Amino acid sequence: ITHEHHVPFLSIYSLALEQDIDYGQNVMQGVNILQNQTFLQPLAGRRLDHEKRRKEIKEQWHRAQRKLQDAEANLRKAKQAYMQRSEEHEKAKLLTVKAEEDQQSASSSNTSKTL
Fold first, then answer.
1. Among 27, 50, 76, 96, which lies 20 to 30 A Cα-Cα from 11?
2. How far, CA to CA in Å, does 108 sit from each of 31, 92, 105, 111?
């Protein structure tokens, strides 16, 4: 504002305007500080906690999925081994029965020859 002769109390108005500007800037700084401390910092902290927890849950989920896949693979292997052993057992039973029958037929033919 330039000094003009017909504006009375120019220095008072200029001082009031400068004080208003300073006050406005101080209020804006205070608002920014309060907003950061009251809202943004706690929200940022909660966001970090949330992200950390989300990653932990994601890792737990992946570990559980891997365990499940391993358990399923082990189950398939165990079933295959069981089926193979069952077949071997059945073959052994058949061979045992056949051997017993052969032995009985051989012993019965020996006894009939001796008579």
1. 27
2. 112, 24, 5, 5
**What's the rounded Cα separation, in Å, for the pair 14 and 7?**
11
Check pLDDT > 90 for residue 61: yes
Q: Which two tokens stand for residue 112?
A: 């009939």
The answer to whether 10 and 1 are in contact (CB under 8 A) is yes
Determine the Cα–Cα distance for residues 94 and 84; give it in Å rounded to an integer: 15
pTM above threshold 0.70: no
Hunting for tokens 């019965």 — which residue is that?
Answer: 108
Asked if 31 and 39 count as a contact pair (C-beta separation under 8 A), the reply is no
